[in-house]
Write a structure and sequence with these properties.
about 375 residues, 7-stranded antiparallel beta sheet, 2 domains, single chain, alpha+beta, about 65% helix
Length: about 375
């Protein structure tokens, strides 16, 4: 009989947890979509975006990104909301007073947070990248102009000893400005080519170079060749000049892992940002479990301030959590903090805080 009661209690808490989270995240999604439509309505009308594409291709594919972005915060708010109501109605006191251990009481919270974290893990690594590709295509066609590379001073190491540089790249015309290509044998440069501009010819699958110079070095001997207009062969395609964060957001877990290895070999200065994205996809679901325990700890005690006080305390903790994550990311991008530690440090610190708060919760 007692086992059946415990099962009923577990289902009761788990149902309230998941239902409150689903309602909260649905409400914020509706609010965000309303604001987003009002902001982009002129773009939709000006570019004659079809209504079915706005709904199906854009917003339906955008919803998983919203869920992934806001889930830790709204898991926390959901836990605080329904747990505070239970505490206010003395349900928690009744449950614990009936012989249910605190460890048994938190079991449905653990199950609920792990379920949501697992869903977020799958969404972030496999579903959202596919959705982002559709969203990006829609934005380029109906909201944004054709993508222009925002990165200048592009450095690409195609393979060890083979360096390619460009001052900038125009994605509209497949045009690289101030192109340079260098070949090394160990530390010694054996060949260097440069041009004021190179433009990709899709028919020939070659690049047309303007004011082209080719210098070859063999010991003390050096040869120089110049021409105003010539076709050259490069080992890279135009899309390799304009890799940016939008491209990374459309890669699933395995593609992103392989892409990072490739960018490390090429010597990209954005490898740290890519690694942060990689580790965030893997580890950020843990934030859902941590925020669940913090929410439970701050709201399971019945207090005079009620739910308002619990929400104020909890939102302050969540705010510092988000700020801490942003600060460590900045340190990793611009400082000496490693990408893995930048993602892991806030989780460790607030994980310890969650453990301490749970230990001090009323039993």
């Amino acid at each position: 009989m007692r086992i059946n009661k415990l099962k009923i209690i577990d289902k009761y808490i788990l149902r309230k947890f998941l239902a409150t989270f689903a309602l909260a995240i649905s409400l914020i999604i509706v609010i965000i979509i309303v604001f987003d439509v009002s902001e982009k309505l002129d773009d939709f009308l000006e570019n004659h975006a079809p209504l079915h594409l706005i709904v199906v291709q854009y917003y339906l594919n955008f919803i998983p990104s919203f869920i992934n972005l806001f889930s830790p915060l709204f898991v926390f708010i959901s836990v605080v909301y329904f747990t505070s109501k239970m505490a206010g109605h003395t349900e928690i006191i009744a449950i614990l007073g009936n012989g249910v251990s605190f460890r048994q009481f938190i079991k449905p919270y653990i199950i609920g947070s792990v379920l949501i974290a697992f869903v977020i893990l799958i969404l972030g690594n496999f579903v959202i990248p596919i959705n982002n590709s559709y969203v990006t295509d829609f934005e380029r066609k109906y909201i944004k102009n054709a993508y222009n590379n925002k990165y200048t001073n592009i450095h690409i190491q195609y393979r060890p000893g083979h360096q390619i540089y460009a001052e900038s790249f125009d994605n509209n015309n497949n045009l690289a400005i101030r192109y340079t290509e260098e070949f090394f044998n160990g530390k010694e440069m054996v060949k260097k080519t440069s041009a004021d501009q190179i433009c990709y010819d899709s028919v020939e699958d070659k690049w047309r170079a303007f004011n082209y110079t080719c210098r070859t070095m063999a010991g003390l001997k050096e040869s120089l060749h110049r021409t105003l207009d010539t076709m050259i062969t490069l080992p890279i395609q135009p899309n390799e000049f304009n890799i940016n964060y939008e491209n990374v957001e459309t890669m699933n877990f395995f593609k992103l892992r392989d892409f990072i290895k490739q960018e490390e070999m090429r010597g990209s200065h954005l490898v740290v940002s890519y690694r942060i994205e990689y580790y965030q996809r893997l580890l950020n679901p843990l934030a859902i479990i941590i925020m669940t325990f913090i929410g439970l700890a701050v709201s399971s005690r019945k207090q005079r301030g009620g739910m308002g006080l619990h929400l104020a305390i909890g939102i302050a903790i969540a705010f510092f959590f988000v700020i801490f994550m942003k600060v460590t990311t900045v340190f990793a991008t611009n400082g000496s903090l490693g990408p893995l530690m930048a993602v892991l440090l806030p989780i460790i610190v607030f994980g310890i805080a969650a453990f301490v708060l749970i230990k001090k919760s009323p039993k």
